[in-house]
Amino acid sequence: MSMESICIRRCNTIEEAEIVISWLEENGIDATVLDRNNPGPLAFGLTDREGYPVLVTQDANAKKATLLLEEHDKQKAAIKSEFREITCDKCGMQSQFDIARGAVQSCDNCGAFLDISE
Prior knowledge:
Strand content: 15-25%
Order of helices and strands: EHEEHEEEE
Helix content: 25-40%
Number of domains: 2
Radius of gyration: 20 Å
Shape: elongated
């Protein structure tokens, strides 16, 4: 087994990386993010084009983590979004919203808040 760090996923934000790490640890895999304070060459908290690397330290853990993440991604993709057509009370324009994104959205035309829940 190799003891060098193996990158199993790159995340867009440090928060996303922390969620992945917590989830992997709940599944018995020790993981970390490479340098939480300096993810890339860009300043002001922006990541490089590759994102925040999530690392594990053993080949077996890397394989298990990759399989777990692939299965999670498949399950997430299988969840079908439900879209709802909403007419804005302020401007009368109709917009379509994915209800999984939340119960309150902004009108695409005027920016007014819309209640998209049932």
